[in-house]
């Protein structure tokens, strides 16, 4: 089934992009989509628990966002950490790239960064003289469509309340709505997928099937496997959870760790996830393609049109959608 990336474009008024979080995590609006009936309803996230059924198991991604953005003292050069490679080496993005060629040395984040290699995709392999102190020198990697630098408020709000394992360079944003009080009302378990910058990079191919998906590291624990294998329905919190679960082989889940580059788009048929909570995604993004596979492309198009008409808040700090 050949599809064009442009089939997933939509126009969004700039003022609907949420560049700041709402006053309370659980105060977001929640669009509720029933796949069987095609009904689209409007609710509030704080009522999320009321949509669960006996035997449901909610699965959340407990990755922790690292302060991956490093700036030189004059703020003219940026190193964006993507993935640790061991021995103080990282795969990075740099800006501007012309100043960070192979052999370049830069004083940054209280240490020195040496560019060892420029990869075919433009990423750099960088070795630090000493590991950079991210808590002291790093900046939260908030999305570029915020059109602002991160601040102290983002240190808390661009992180889920249950974040445990450092490694992501973007938040699993569907989880940003949860509070300890909401979690206490629902049966839940955790897996870990470290979100990479590739999640939000534009799809440059014209045809969907020509896009090469990035890989992201994940881990599923024994406790989570036992909870999921006994569940009547799995409710995935976010596309990151959905991708991990759908990447697993058929049959009962088993504890495992690894990396997945699964690319989900119509007409993919989901094998494990029975319901999905997600935020509203960028046009032409792989995330929009995933939710279109889950709910049906035409139903998602209708839902997005209603969200725009009803003035929902979009993207990372925006409102959410529950697809049943």
Structural overview:
With 324 residues, this protein is an alpha/beta fold. The chain is built from 7 helices and 17 strands. The chain has 2 domains: 5-65 and 142-323, QueA-like (3-Layer(aba) Sandwich); 69-137, Thrombin, subunit H. Helix 6 packs across helix 7 (297-309). The mean pLDDT is 95.
Question: Which helices and strands, and how do they pair?
Answer:
Layout: E1 29-33, E2 40-44, E3 56-61, E4 63-65, E5 69-71, E6 78-86, E7 89-95, E8 105-108, E9 111-118, E10 124-128, H1 134-137, H2 152-157, E11 165-168, H3 180-184, E12 188-193, E13 216-220, H4 222-229, E14 233-237, H5 239-246, E15 256-260, E16 273-279, H6 286-295, H7 297-309, E17 320-323
Helix pairs in contact: 6-7
What are the salient characteristics of this protein?
324 residues, alpha/beta, QueA-like, Thrombin, subunit H, 2 domains, nine-stranded mixed sheet, six-stranded antiparallel sheet, globular
User: Reading side by side through the largest sheet, how are the strands ordered?
Assistant: 2-1-17-16-14-3-12-13-15
Relative helix content: 10-25%
Strand tally is: 17
Please give the largest β-sheet: 9 strands, mixed
CATH topology of the largest domain: QueA-like
Query: How many individual domains?
Result: 2
Fourth-level CATH superfamily of the largest domain: QueA-like
Tally of helical runs: 7
Percentage beta strand: 25-35%
Inertia-based shape: globular
SS-based class: alpha/beta
* Rg, nearest Å: 20 Å
Q: What is the residue-averaged pLDDT?
A: 95
The stretches of 5 or more residues where confidence is low (pLDDT under 50) are none
CATH hierarchy: architecture of the largest domain: 3-Layer(aba) Sandwich
CATH class label of the largest domain: Alpha Beta
Distance between the termini: 25 Å
């Amino acid at each position: 089934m050949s599809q064009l990336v442009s089939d997933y474009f939509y126009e969004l008024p700039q003022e609907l992009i949420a560049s700041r979080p709402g006053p309370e995590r659980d105060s977001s609006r929640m669009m509720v989509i029933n796949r069987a009936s095609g009904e689209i309803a409007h609710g509030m996230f704080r009522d999320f628990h009321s949509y669960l059924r006996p035997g449901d198991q909610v699965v959340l991604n407990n990755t922790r966002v690292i302060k991956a953005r490093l700036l030189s003292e004059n703020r003219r050069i940026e190193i964006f950490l993507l993935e640790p490679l061991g021995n103080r080496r990282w795969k990075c993005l740099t800006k501007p790239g012309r100043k960070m060629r192979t052999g370049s040395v830069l004083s940054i984040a209280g240490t020195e960064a040496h560019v060892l290699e420029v990869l075919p995709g433009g990423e750099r392999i960088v070795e630090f003289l000493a590991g950079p102190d991210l808590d002291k020198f790093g900046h939260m990697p908030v999305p570029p469509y915020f059109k602002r630098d991160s601040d102290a408020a983002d240190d808390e709000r661009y992180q889920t309340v249950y974040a445990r394992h450092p490694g992501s360079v973007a938040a699993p944003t569907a989880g940003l709505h949860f509070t300890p009080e909401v979690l206490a009302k629902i049966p839940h378990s955790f897996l870990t997928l470290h979100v990479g910058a590739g999640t939000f990079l534009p799809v440059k191919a014209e045809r969907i099937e020509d896009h090469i998906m990035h890989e992201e590291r994940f881990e599923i624990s024994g406790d989570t496997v036992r909870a999921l294998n006994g569940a009547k329905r799995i409710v995935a919190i976010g596309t990151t959870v959905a991708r991990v679960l759908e990447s697993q082989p058929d049959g009962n889940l088993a504890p495992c760790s690894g990396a997945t580059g699964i690319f989900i788009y119509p007409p993919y048929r989901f094998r494990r996830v029975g319901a999905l909570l997600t935020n509203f995604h960028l046009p032409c993004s792989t995330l929009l393609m995933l939710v279109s596979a889950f709910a049906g492309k035409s139903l998602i198009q209708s839902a997005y049109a209603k969200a725009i008409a009803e003035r929902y808040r979009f993207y990372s700090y925006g409102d959410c959608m529950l697809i049943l």
